[in-house]
Amino acid sequence: MKWMGMGLLLGASLWLARVMARPYRLRVAALDDWRQMLGQLEPLIGWRQMPLAEAFARAARTHPGRQRAVASLVGSLGSRDEDFATAFSRALAADSALFAEDREALMALAPVLGKSVAGYQVQHLADVRGDIERILAEARQYGLKKARLVESLVSVAGIAAIILLI
Amino acid sequence: MSGPWQYLPNPWRQEIAQLSEETHRTLEEIRFRLGRPVLLYGPDWIEALAGDGPRSLDGPQMERILAVLVDHSIYARVDELRQGYVTLPGGHRVGVAGRAVVANGRVETVNQVYGLNMRRARAVPEAGAHLLRRLAGLGVRGGSLLLLSPPRCGKTTLLRDLCRTLSDRGVRTVVIDERSEIAGLGGVGGPGFDLGLHTDVLDGWPKPDGIAVALRVLSPDLLIVDELGPDADVAAVRQARYGGVDVVATIHAGSMADLAMRPGLAELVDAGAFDALVLLSRRLGPGTVERVWPRTALAEDGRA
Fold it and tell me: Are residues B184 and B256 in the same domain?
């Protein structure tokens, strides 16, 4: 019985550690997806001049984690009743892996995307992609470090509790 | 709801959907003007759009309507905006009145929208066949025609049905659809009109380039061209005619006198490039064939 309790406690602490570290890992994956999507949007908008909804849907094809947010954007634009900024803000809100700072950086696109000739659009996308790359680098360096720290602390706490039980 | 109105944002889309069936049937265009109520135009009536929506339009509303009409993607429609219009799926044209942004002596785009004019494109089956029967009755055997009329007299509608009729008779036809109005592909590849079994569409091509490409690679019997404009268009039509390809074209002109004021075109007509000239009006509704001049009659009358 005692050994079973110890095993359960160890399992729970490891699970809790992973759950607590998960947002940091998901954030890195989400930022990487957005970085890649912005890179894909550049030729879709700049060269193919695809309408925004179609371009976002195409860019999201290879990023399953972002498809919910992009589906929200495409749906809002398709309803013809929302402006792009509102629809984009709603889409970013639907992407729960992003942190507030990430959404703020991406929202820089809202007032300008779709509103000028292709050359300027590509420039705007490149600027925001640069910001996302910077945030991603920080998230990889500090966020993942924090994730590992949280995992370690929670796991160590679990092991400490087991030792105390013994 | 059919027609270009389905592409509007609310509340206007909803208000238009609530109009009577009779109003819908005869509604030709809707005009949005800054600081004015939205006006509906039929063949012989004008009404303000009633309903719960805003009574007169402000700048942000005009911008919003245009943004929705271009799918929030101005960059994809810059070539059209540069010429003062956007075309919606179905070939419906929206004229855009606004402030031109000029760079290097050329209009780059339009901002500060003051007015939008949405015109419904229609298909009128049998209009083309009817005209061809009339031409045959006058002894016109060739297939090169010039349709002339002032705006809103049904040139493009008749041109579209002529294309379908001739194409379905086996004539290999190429449509040079610079404004995406004839085929109705909407500039972004929307659903289009039936243009016949043997028709290829060069969508969005400037007329001179499109005609050159069609002649070079698509081996047409007939070219369909809407709204001949600058000398380059006329020169391209001349090139096609010298190459033995028939051309059915339209041009804005209210009379033969108007036509004669366009030197390049008048010379083309005098050279016998067209087998007949057809003048349209709105006298009995859009598409009324007011008069037909077979080539022989033009020769007898002297210069165009």
Answer: yes
Least Cα distance to A143 among A15, A20, A11 occurs for: A20
The stretch B189-207 carries a mean pLDDT of: 85
Residue B74 touches partner A, C-beta closer than 8 Å? yes
A34 in contact with chain B, both atoms CB, cutoff 8 A = no
Question: Are residues B113 and B132 located together in one domain of the fold?
Answer: no
Q: Which of A21-25, B139-143, B164-168 has the highest mean pLDDT?
A: B164-168
**Does residue B304 have a pLDDT over 50?**
no
Among A81, A123, A124, the strongest candidate for a mutation testing the B interface, having the largest count of B CBs within 10 A, is: A81
| Shared domain check, B295 and B170 | yes
Query: What is the residue range of A141's domain?
Result: 2-165
Residue B104 shares a structural domain with residue B197: no
Specify whether B285 is located in the same domain as B136: yes
Predicted pLDDT of residue B191: 57
| B254 and B205 together in one domain | yes
CATH code: domain of residue B98: 3.30.450
**Beta sheet of B173-177, edge-to-edge order:** B199-203, B173-177, B222-225, B246-252, B145-149, B276-281, B288-294
Contact B10 A80 (CB under 8 A): yes
Residues in chain B within 8 Å Cβ distance of A83: 64, 67, 72
Under an 8 A CB cutoff, do A53 and B72 touch?
Answer: yes
ipTM for the whole complex: 0.82
Contacts of B121 (CB under 8 A, 6+ apart): B4, B90, B91, B92, B93, B156, B157, B181, B184, B193
Do B115 and B196 belong together in one domain? no
Q: Where residue B301 falls among pLDDT bands split at 50, 70, 90?
A: low
Search chain A and give the residue with CA nearest B70. Answer: A51
**Structural domain for B230, as ranges:** 127-301
Contacts with A44 from chain B: Cβ below 8 Å? none
- Count Cβ–Cβ pairs < 8 Å, chain A vs chain B: 52
